Amino acid sequence: MSSIIAAASDIALVVSAEGTILSVLLNRQDDSFGNLNHWEGRPVVEFLTDESIEKFQHAHDAYMSGHPPRKPLELNHSDNAVWQYPVRYTFHRFGQENAVLLLGRDLRPIAETQQQLVQAQIALEQGYEARREFDARYRVVMSNVDDAVVFVSVQTGRIEDANGQAAELLGLKPEALMGASFASLFSDRSGAELTESLMNATLTDDGQAISVRTARTRQSVDLHPVLFRAAGQRVLMCRLLGEHAIAGQTDSAANHAASLFRGTTDGIVFMDPRGTTLSVNDAFLDMVGTTHLSDVVGQSLAEYLARGQIDLGVLLENAARSGQMRVYATRLVNDLGARVPVEVSATALEDAKNPAVALIIRDVSRMEAVRKAESGNTGGNMPEPGRNVMDLVGSASLKEIVAETTDVVEKMCIETAVNLTRNNRVAAAEMLGLSRQSLYVKLRKYGLLSKNG
């Protein structure tokens, strides 16, 4: 009988008229409940959460009065506050002394599935809301930015969007620009020639401008193109700078750069190709807790980086190899030994006589604290960068999607660390917080063991 009862339910309790557990039967196919032998001989209410005690007592009183509950009863169990789980019970008469047999179904799989569905729905709604928000921001920026901006399709050479400043500069109404051939607005370039020139300009590192003359206003205009891909199509975003804008931009650039160096809240460091600091701003001095500029200038920046020469080597090598490094996460160590999480971007400054590397260092300790708080409050909601994973819903199960994306992220992180350290696997393992043996296991797992030697 006990085997039949255990097979017919996930958990079964035989409860006396006084509410004491006489016997506990568990399905042998499910070991998630653990050992519950210590329940026997003790009141049921000792293993129920506060909100479930009243529900059980009401149902048990009705059973004792000859009116057993017709509907299943959902109770939340608690065992020494270590774990909790919901179970749906049905009441059945058992024995001759008003004992009751409670046949239960474990609701944890259903609860987890419901939570996942709710989280997926929330993520989708957040994605739609973010898309509407981005579109509104885009429209506000386009209408209020001082620069004339035009979006041109590479395939057709026609304008897909433009702001009012561009229409004024080109001598047309904004609605007349939509769908117009971009090359037809200039008197000295054909369609194929202009598109080819713009594409070639996007390949240069110095952002070379294309000079043209407008057909209607007869102004000299510099086109600054940026190429990107959207919805499978290549699009050129062109900033149009007229004669007055070009002159004003050249005159004020140096003053703006100096003001930025003095007033920004981000740390700015200039160092030579060996990593010796040449100059720093006040924000960097605040980050490392140093009072005098002379305490920092002439010192190696590795003294202020958490991983020392490893961090410095990564920054210098990537700046020398590709000219810049967009984001590198590490920690600054100040004079008191405190470690501050920062994000660093590095740029190699092209100067034959005085080569240098410029660093912009941003304190991200507040963002890190917010992310930890949000992670703890949301119960594991999918983070913002993971929204693109929503596109996979429907093509694979949730378990397959999570497993695949986890492997992809892990492989990308390992490849990035190996590339940043120039295949120095000891440094890569330290950067990832892994032992050297664990790194080799993961390299072998993803077929990266023989990559770059």
Describe the structure.
By secondary structure, this protein is an alpha+beta fold. It contains 13 helices and 15 strands. Helix 11 packs across helix 12.
Uncertain segments: 378-387
Q: Taking strands numbered 1, 2, ... along the chain, how are they ordered across the largest sheet? A: 2-1-5-4-3
Give the end-to-end Cα distance, rounded to a whole number of Å: 65 Å
Q: How helix-rich are the residues, as a percent range? A: 25-40%
Biggest sheet, open or closed, and with what strands and sense?
Answer: 5 strands, antiparallel
Quick check: average pLDDT?
82
Note the main attributes of this structure.
alpha+beta, five-stranded antiparallel sheet, 453 residues, 39% helix
Topology:
Blueprint: H1 2-8, E1 11-15, E2 21-26, H2 50-64, E3 73-79, E4 83-94, E5 99-106, H3 108-144, E6 148-153, E7 159-162, H4 164-170, H5 174-177, H6 191-202, E8 210-213, E9 220-230, E10 233-241, H7 243-263, E11 267-271, E12 277-280, H8 282-288, H9 309-322, E13 324-333, E14 339-349, E15 356-363, H10 365-377, H11 398-420, H12 425-432, H13 436-445
Antiparallel strand pairs: 1-2, 1-5, 3-4, 4-5, 6-7, 6-10, 8-9, 9-10, 11-12, 11-15, 13-14, 14-15
Helix pairs in contact: 11-12
